């Protein structure tokens, strides 16, 4: 007989809600819930498409890399109340923790992300002509203190090294960090 282990659900240390998308069937953390005229602000807490744990550990997985950009989304999409929960299901929390490790898991679930976002930058990049790729804005581009999040910033710099079209919308600080990274990397 095969019995599934029931893992304890996880609540955000900030009391944030979690929302399961009716479209993607994936969980996000609600940094701001939409109420009437306001926009919702959220961050995905799992990849949009499934990432096989064994595969991700051996290869550079496209979906995992996209997820690690930690994109912040603003929207006015209405979500039915039954899709919100104060707790992330234990199986989802366990999967994400195995996928990204303890430090990034704690960032996604417990960090006071909203207070770390420069709202002026978010408003600027949220316009289509300033960030034409959609899917939210990478946290690295809108965080107030980039030195506080080296794992996330370094990942974004590596993404830019592969997807150079992102360079045209970066601020001076990020361009400097990118150029420093290129000086340290051996020529390929």
Chain-wise SSE layout:
Layout: E1 10-11, E2 17-20, E3 27-32, E4 40-44, H1 53-58, H2 62-67, E5 71-75, E6 84-85, E7 87-88, H3 90-100, H4 102-110, H5 113-116, H6 119-125, E8 137-138, H7 139-142, H8 150-162, H9 172-184
Antiparallel strand pairs: 1-7, 2-3, 2-6, 3-4, 4-5, 5-8
Helix pairs in contact: 3-4, 8-9
Tell me briefly what this model is.
With 188 residues, the chain is α+β, with helices and mostly antiparallel strands. The protein contains nine helices and eight strands.
Describe this structure in words.
This protein is an alpha+beta fold and about 190 residues long. It is built from 9 helices and 8 strands. The chain has helices at about 55-60, 60-65, 90-100, 100-110, 115, 120-125, 140, 150-160, 170-185, and strands at about 10, 15-20, 25-30, 40-45, 70-75, 85, 85-90, 135-140. A 6-stranded antiparallel sheet has the order 6-2-3-4-5-8. A two-stranded antiparallel sheet has the order 1-7. A hairpin with a 7-residue loop joins strand 3 and strand 4 (about 40-45). Helix 3 packs across helix 4 and helix 8 (about 150-160) crosses helix 9 (about 170-185). The protein is globular. The termini are far apart. The model has no long low-confidence stretch (mean pLDDT about 85).
Which features characterize this protein?
6-stranded antiparallel beta sheet; 188 residues; alpha+beta
Main-sheet strand order equals: 6-2-3-4-5-8
Molecular shape:
globular
Number of contiguous helices: 9
Helix content range of the residues, please?
Answer: 25-40%
> Unreliable stretches, pLDDT < 50, 5 or more residues?
none
Major sheet size, sense and barrel closure: 6 strands, antiparallel
How many beta-strand runs? 8
- Report the sheet-strand fraction: 5-15%
Cα gyration radius (Å)? 17 Å
Q: What is the H/E order?
A: EEEEHHEEEHHHHEHHH
Secondary structure class reads: alpha+beta
Mean pLDDT equals: 85
Distance N terminus to C terminus?
Answer: 52 Å
């Amino acid at each position: 007989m095969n019995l599934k282990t029931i893992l304890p659900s996880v609540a955000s240390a900030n009391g944030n809600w979690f929302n399961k998308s009716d479209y993607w069937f994936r969980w996000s953390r609600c940094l701001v819930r939409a109420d009437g005229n306001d926009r919702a602000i959220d961050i995905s807490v799992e990849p949009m498409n499934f990432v096989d744990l064994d595969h991700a550990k051996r290869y550079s997985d496209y979906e995992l890399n996209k997820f690690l950009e930690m994109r912040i989304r603003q929207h006015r999409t209405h979500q039915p109340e039954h899709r919100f929960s104060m707790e992330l299901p234990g199986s989802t929390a366990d999967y994400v923790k195995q996928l990204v490790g303890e430090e990034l898991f704690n960032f996604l679930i417990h960090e006071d992300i909203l207070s770390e976002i420069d709202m002026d930058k978010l408003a600027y990049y949220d316009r289509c002509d300033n960030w034409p790729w959609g899917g939210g804005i990478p946290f690295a581009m809108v965080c107030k203190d980039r030195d506080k999040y080296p794992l996330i910033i370094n990942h974004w710099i590596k993404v830019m090294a592969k997807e150079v079209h992102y360079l045209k919308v970066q601020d001076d600080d990020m361009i400097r960090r990118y150029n420093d990274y290129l000086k340290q990397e051996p020529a390929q």
